[in-house]
Design a protein that fits this description.
Low-confidence stretches: none
CATH superfamily of the largest domain: HUPs
Number of strands: 15
Radius of gyration: 26 Å
Shape: elongated
Number of domains: 2
Structural class: alpha/beta
Bound molecules: adenosine-5'-triphosphate, magnesium ion
CATH class of the largest domain: Alpha Beta
Strand content: 15-25%
Oligomer: single chain
Order of helices and strands: EHEEHHEHEHEEEEEHEHEHHEHEHHHHE
Helix content: 25-40%
Length: about 400
Amino acid sequence: MNNPYPNPNFNPTHILCHYAEIGLKGDNRSYFEKKLKQNIQHIIKWRSPGSIESIRRLRGRFLITLTEHGQKNIHQISEHLENVFGLAYFAPALKVDDTYESIISNSLEMMKNMEFDSFRVTARKSNSPLSFSAQKMNEDVGAAIVTKLNKTVNLSYPEATCFIDMIQEGTFIYQKRISGPGGLPVGVSGKVAVMLSGGIDSPVAAYYALKRGARPIYIHFHSVPHVSPASIEKVKETVEVLSKYQPGAKLYSVEFAPIQDEIYAKSDPKLLVILYRRFMIRIAEILARDEGAKVLYTGEAVGQVASQTIENISVVEESSCLPIFRPLIGFDKEEIISIARKIGTYNISIRPHQDCCTLFVPKHPATKARLTDVLLSEKELDTDKLITTAVDTAEVFLY
Ligand code: ATP
Ligand code: MG
């Protein structure tokens, strides 16, 4: 966790939240800002209730005023903000009196009791009623820190920074800009359905859906009783972790064993995985449409396993009328694992469980399935009934 204030005597009263403005124009911009504000409010109200007094939209940023309770919980709040997509960075800051003397003395106080030798002052001014310039504060606060605290200026590689933001709403000082996750606020890009398997890849695909502002519902196919119900628990825990990016997530858990049994009994073993996938896609599509989700997401990457050759991906895709997004398509496994670790899903995903698609599957599945063969196989199956039953019996979990 990022420590928002290395000096334990520095007690921020506000948080300045910045977002990347590039590409935001017209109506787009106010929609983006509204969603980002809602998401900030939502996550803090949910995880640290009673912490926000107000949140105001300024140009290019938000100003959060913390309650006393919020000031005490600043570490926790910072952790939540690190997961709010759309934020470029944020800074827990102290509001100081709008006078020259107050800015100097509070800056000195903030930089006291900290271990560093070199520092810089980074003052900015925009729409502030104050008569002195940002450059004057850079020089004068800098000189005070040099003489009173015996530190050295280093503009290029400072060990510590004294930030001073002089804006219309007042003057704020802080020591640290904490990186947000970037991306777009969850919700600005509409609803999608992420197919979550219990493996390492699909939660990472979900992360990239969330990062570009999509609001996922999650769909999991389980093979209980052929596998242990622990496989469903794994996926529920994974959604719990992902819900730090999106409070109020929804998971559909779909019974897949009856479909698998019928496919297994009637089809060419080499085509099993492809047939399983085509059924999953069809069911996911119905649930997605019911939810108003416009796209399916999967964790596939070209060539990772036999079912993910370009030929097989295209035969599976043929079963879907909705577009299928695969954000990991060009990723190596190592790259996927490093993101999974970062977002906290890896340790859940590696817990041993049986994947429903590895059950009863031959050692050498088709790597270049032909659509005509797959369609012929499907003629033998009671497709509509199997799909309707699976959709009707899907269980829903809310977060
Ligand atoms: P993952 O690590 O996500 O399981 P994988 O590399 O093991 O991916 P596959 O098992 O071939 O790949 O699955 C490819 C994709 O198909 C998954 O990323 C997921 O989106 C979807 N998928 C596979 N099995 C299931 C399942 N049981 N429930 C929901 N989606 C699934
Ligand atoms: Mg898998």
